[in-house]
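so im writing up the methods section and need the LacI family transcriptional regulator record in one place, dumping it here so i stop losing it
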Amino acid sequence: MPTMKDIARLAGVSLSTVSHVVNQSRFVSEEITLRVQKVIEELNYKPSLVARSLKIKQTKTIGMLVTASNNPFFAEVVRHVERYCERHNYHLILVNTEANIENLEKHLGRLLLKQVDGLLLMCSEPQDFSTKILAEISLPTVVIDWWQQPLTADIVHENSELGGYIATKSLIDAGYTEIAVITGELTKPHAANRLAGYKWAILEQNLQLNPEWIVESHFHYEGGVQGMQALLQLSHKPRAIFAMSDSIAIGVYQAIWQAGLRIPQDIAVIGYDNIELAQYLSPPLSTIHQPKARLAKNAVQQLLARIHNPTKKVEHILLTPELVHRKSF
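--- predicted struct ---
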């Protein structure tokens, strides 16, 4: 494996010059920079991610890795993260892995070359990333919502089991007893937790827990369409739907409209997340408010605290979701 010493020898420059070119830590003339970069490409040299994570100073820069998703929830969280970073005079570098392990390694390498002071991680889709990639990075790290691989990192998330309970109980309190749920991927902890909350509310009220009314789908629009279409094909159809995300609920709205049915007259619906679009649907969507601003604020504050005190005890911060009642049930 080539080293910086090999590059310096072949480029005819000092080791410190190679370091400055790689790290962009000091001005190097264009002629020498191009010469060094040419050798780097010829040798296919890749800086050690572990070495890059050894911090010697703070750059007032935070890196944020987000996996691909069309769920507006994640875009809204990122917007809040940017705002809180600015309030603390930190620059945020946002990268999207597009659910690809090569992109993860590439973007992580770029963040470390920028010498970010810490990492925020937010996973939207199930991944097959190696646990070694992030385990070798000795940077302060905070997970927002969830990350599929176990990490030694602070986690800021919401009480998703309670949220699932509140969503289902609110339908029961409104008089509905035949309630179905369309879940996201149950490999995701918060999907499994919301399903546990749904079952908790159903069994607490001694209602029927119908396996046909538990439909596993995906946390996006098409997942809602497919899940609702499956429920509409049943001989015994539910009268209310708990959609585990607002994006699922939007798909549910579409499938109900395609079937010539009305919300809430024929089928009631409640979503989850309280994305900005929810209030503009027809009828406006009742939903569980996931505290996106507080998720972002706590994540940024937690990361800054860990940057200044890397050895502090790892914390899990659990936030409380709330019902936003509109017109869909």
